[in-house]
Amino acid sequence: MSGNITFTMIKPKAIADGNMGNIIAKITQGGFNIKALKLTRLTKDQARKFYAVHSERPFFEGLVSFMSSGPIVAAILEKEDAVLNYRNYIGATNPADAAAGSIRALYGTSIEANAVHGSDSDENAVNEGAFFFSEFERF
Ligand code: UDP
Ligand code: MG
Q: Whole-prediction pTM value?
């Protein structure tokens, strides 16, 4: 499918810290067109399914608890080369290593609570978008 779509989540801690609006504004300022946007909350089972690729990692159960601990924002974003551009825009997984001015540097508080998710491939962008938005094929 398209290389112009990526999927993001604003994670619970960033929302609890009051940064939902700031992060949405920052996404828009980066030239990402918001195609779909939803405030929702993951059950533990949904979080396990979303992060299934990490199920053998030591941080998995903590991540599942964290991601289901409060509301999240899910969004589908459009830009040329969206996956790569957005990964660069959000910065490294660990906010301590993220480039100054990136979303994770600005709003992340730990490697787990790193403010946002960003898809790592076109295929995952489509699958992750479809995980949250049943009408995805119309985007
Ligand atoms: N994570 C964590 N501890 C780690 C590595 C990752 O809690 O040591 C969390 C973090 O929230 C990260 C998510 O697991 O965003 C998925 O990890 P991944 O390696 O896919 O990083 P990302 O693609 O989000 O940069
Ligand atoms: Mg990843």
A: 0.96
The residue whose CA is least distant from atom 1 of ligand 1 is 112
Bridge partners of residue 40, in order along the sequence: 72
HEC string of the chain equals CCCCEEEEEECHHHHHCCCHHHHHHHHHHCCCEEEEEEEECCCHHHHHHHCHHHCCCCCHHHHHHHHCCCCEEEEEEECCCHHHHHHHHHCCCCHHHCCCCCHHHHHCCCCCCCCEEECCCHHHHHHHHHHHCCCHHHC
Domain positions in the chain = 5-138
The residue whose two tokens read 């790569």 is: 84
Q: Which class would CATH give 5-138?
A: alpha beta
pLDDT digits (tens, 9 = 90+) for 56-106: 999 999 999 999 999 999 999 999 999 999 999 999 999 999 999 999 999
Residue with CA closest to ligand 1 atom 25: 93
Is the shortest distance between the CB of 17 and ligand 1 below 6 Å? no
